[in-house]
Write a structure and sequence with these properties.
By secondary structure, the protein is mainly beta. It is 9% helix and 21% strand. It has a single domain, classed as Alpha-Beta Horseshoe (Leucine-rich repeat, LRR (right-handed beta-alpha superhelix)). A hairpin with a 6-residue loop joins strand 4 and strand 5. The termini are far apart.
Length: 140
């Protein structure tokens, strides 16, 4: 099954494009590990894992040609989510946008590994309960 993409133009994706590219298995596993570190009491991420292609999962955006995960925007699904930011996100090497607005991270620190996501050009951590530390971003 292909990947139907309808998302923000800033991620470099075209709307309403069907591709034969499905998500990369290592990135699928990274997303499942990320989800495992969250408590999702409202089951907002209901189809994560139930569908094989992670490009079809709620709040996941993929490059329609390569199948790489380039966007993860949990901002609209954040109601009732708590947990921590999993180091498994390091496996999303092509990630360009990470939206975590509104998730209760229970004052865990912002992980320094976020600075190693060299393709990340958008990060929304507004209205989250995080312990802020100095985040070093790698130069491009």
């Amino acid at each position: 099954m292909g990947c139907f993409v309808s998302c923000d133009h800033s991620l470099g994706l075209r709307e309403d494009v069907i591709s034969n590219s499905s998500c990369i298995e290592k990135e699928r596993q990274a997303l499942l590990s990320f989800k495992a570190d969250l408590v999702d009491i409202n089951n907002n991420l209901y189809n994560w894992g139930s569908q094989r292609d992670c490009c079809d999962w709620v709040d996941v955006n993929c490059n329609y040609i390569t199948g790489h995960v380039i966007g993860l925007d949990l901002s609209t699904s954040s109601n009732g989510m708590t947990g921590k930011i999993s180091p498994s996100l390091q496996g999303l090497h092509h990630l360009e946008y990470l939206g975590l607005r509104g998730i209760d991270f229970q004052f865990n620190p912002i992980p320094t590994f976020l600075g190693s996501l060299v393709n990340l050009n958008g990060l929304d951590i507004s209205s989250v309960d995080l312990f802020l530390i100095n985040l070093q971003i790698s130069p491009t």
